[in-house]
Amino acid sequence: MPRPRKPTALKELAGTLQPCRTNEREPRLQPGVPLPPPHASAMARKVWPGIAGMLEEMGVLTAADAPALEALCETYADLLRARQALDRGVSDGEDLIAAAGDLTYVTEGKNGKMLRARPEVAMVADADRRLCMWLARFGLTPADRSRVSAAASGEQEEDEYEGF
Asked: Which residue, 25, 62, 101, 151, has most beta carbons within 10 Å?
């Protein structure tokens, strides 16, 4: 599977934009922060302003990015919920099966005791994998961020030919 295309906005910020490889008819959208949709989970609405603020500072967020931003926020919320579930103990009503924070529990089978991973561990791993993918798409991972060199807000880039 080929690597996904890097957004033109990220290419511009990184200084790697080449006019010969640019789609001249690409839609130009105004930067802006979309509002969280009403159907988003409470946890996703809670993390929305922080993530949207980071993306707005980077200059890569538009109103058209609302569905992708929703997916990013919901995935982050899934990860937080899975970690919260892992931090709770699990009991079968009488006995404690797994203490809070334990990654495994012991079951008894016909061949004796067996150590098993809690289902929440798989939920955390899956949400973490999906979150990494969404963060990379928005340029929010360290590797993706290292390719972007944007001027800080309010700071002007120096023009080396200004004196001429």
From this structure: 62
In 3D space, the residue among 92, 122, 120 whose CA is nearest the CA of residue 108 turns out to be 92
Contact in structure between 163 and 30 (CB atoms under 8 Å): no
Tokens at 136, concatenated? 């990379």
DSSP SS3 for 90:
strand
What is this structure's pTM? 0.70
Task: Give the contacts of 34 (CB within 8 A, at least 6 positions apart).
Answer: 52, 61, 62, 63, 65, 66, 69
Who contacts 152 (Cβ-Cβ below 8 Å, separation ≥6)? none
Spatial distance between the Cα atoms of 105 and 116, rounded to a whole number of angstroms = 5
Copy the structure tokens of residue 62.
């538009």
**Per-residue pLDDT tens over the stretch 133-163:** 999 888 888 887 766 544 444 444 555 555 5
